[in-house]
Write a structure and sequence with these properties.
This protein has six helices and no strands. The chain is mainly α. This is CRISPR type III-B/RAMP module-associated protein Cmr5.
Length: 134
């Protein structure tokens, strides 16, 4: 097995710079993202809901990192679900969240492990770039 970087460092730098432009205070989320990896894909994916409405737009940063992960994993042949969830709170939103969670939990154990390893590396790079730009 050969090592493949998947341009994670480049993606991380772009994500950190975009977050810094949008709201420098949101950069602290990089450290929280790295910690959240250990809780699993569904918790990482869902964290942006908890942060929605925050004036520092932390939710946008989390969502952008998730979308980057989905894009990177697609290049490996692993399809990570990324359903759009309705913005309006209510039954439809809850059902969409439940559906997305089920899809993440139903990934094969191997795909989950590989995806979490890639996410960990991406978050490590986010932390590194955050420390450089703060």
């Amino acid at each position: 097995m050969a090592w493949e970087s998947y341009s994670l460092d480049r993606y991380a730098q772009e994500l950190v710079l975009a977050a810094k432009k949008r709201s420098p205070d949101s950069l602290n989320q990089s450290h929280k993202m790295r910690l959240a990896v250990s809780y699993g894909l569904e918790r990482f994916w869902g964290e942006h809901f908890r942060l929605k409405g925050d004036r520092e737009r932390k939710d946008v940063y989390w969502q952008e990192v998730w979308e980057t992960l989905v894009k990177v994993m697609a290049t490996t042949g692993v399809k990570i679900p990324n359903d759009r969830i309705p913005d309006r709170e209510g039954r439809e939103q809850v059902e969409a969240i439940e559906g997305m969670s089920k899809k993440l939990w139903s990934l094969s154990l191997e795909d989950q492990r590989v995806t979490l390893a890639v996410l960990k590396e991406l978050c490590d790079a986010l932390v590194w770039w955050t420390q450089r730009y703060k």
